[in-house]
Write a structure and sequence with these properties.
147 residues; Glutaredoxin; 5 helices; 5 strands; globular
Amino acid sequence: MYRRLAVATAAVALLLGGAVAPAVADSPAPVARTSATAEIPNVVDVTSDNYAQVMEWSQTKPVVLDFTADWCYWCQKEKPYLQQYNTADNGAWVWARVDVDENPALSRQYRVRGIPALLNIQNGTEAGSRLVGFDGPTSLRNWLNRL
């Protein structure tokens, strides 16, 4: 029940397109555009400026596009588990956070209708399944294990 309410609330906010949450920092951690031998970060905040670079990284290892927002209750509940699993997996996948309020074009591009939404990106395209909503740490861990 709570999950449906959270998904419905997020969908309404996305449809309205308004900036519900105040803007966080305008510039996420800098992303270096260097050779393919450069180290790929484990966590990155995705913007339109670094989106192409993130897709390049997906050629090397899986990228989990995490469509989220500061005001989203279930996104905030899921966040510490994503951090924990990303650390435990020692960089096996990139946690690429996409703030839906700051990046509405990416939300439309991937047809994200509810948040939190996790997309498995490999070789520059969506591969396999999505995980929409947060049903708890066990289902999240199982989804990440299938990347």
